[in-house]
Amino acid sequence: MIQNITKTALFLVLLGLHGGRAQASMPGEPQGTRSPETNPELIIEFNTAHLRKGWPLVLSIGLFQPRAVTTEEQVRSAGAFVINPPREGWEEHLSIEILFRQNRKNEQTHLPLQKISIRPRQLTLSSDKSSLLLRYVLPPEETAKLATGKYFVNAKLDTTRVATGGWTGTLNTSQVLSVEEPSLDQPANEGCPRALANSDYFDAIGNPEKALTVMNEYLPAAQPGTAATCLNRRAMLAEASGDLKLAREYYCKASADSWVNLLAMEKSRKKGEQAPFYARSIFSTNCERLTDVTGKTQ
User: Which pTM value belongs to this model?
Assistant: First the structure.
């Protein structure tokens, strides 16, 4: 249940990322004849881009079919990508480098990441799917030992070294993880990011019950205007379980909470500062969608 939600989140996160582009070819096709934009995208996702020491870390690496970010003509020429795993698993194709920024220099470093086992399988990337390759976690007791600063995580997928059939090529991508000291006063606006980080961690290590408990324990005490993302997550969990009425309730609460946050930002805005940007949220869209389905009004 929660794994499906995680895959959906991985797909959505990519829409805001700028992953590396591929130099690749399809079997039987001359090198360089395919537009780079019609190759898969390699993506890195953290459960939080701003990690407080003592919060758990989840690092996910996946592949994405780029139809959602290409033009209609490129979409028609892209088709589906079939990628076969090597005998020893995806690590045989994938390399990860971690650099730590210190004294204006990037120095290679090591993080004691723990791999979460994912059974290697043939991947077929179609227009509406992203696929998780590998996932790593770093528990709270390990993140508490990290030096504060910026960590640059670079990943490279190279399927040209081992003949597996299907798509071949190389992909590169990178993401930045900011590690920060824990907040002594635990501000209200950090409650939701902390709950999400812990919920994602328990989901990743195979404890969906605890992942749900984290959300249920946090939300009743959440300060208005700070919990829209967590309310949305709780709604997603409810919808995945088939409880559409509960999902609608939480989507609508997320929509209302996002408005509270927007009004608070506007109220605190100083003269001359730019007004907060507003766009219709996915919370509102999902609230209305399930309101139509369940036949209830707010």
Answer: 0.78
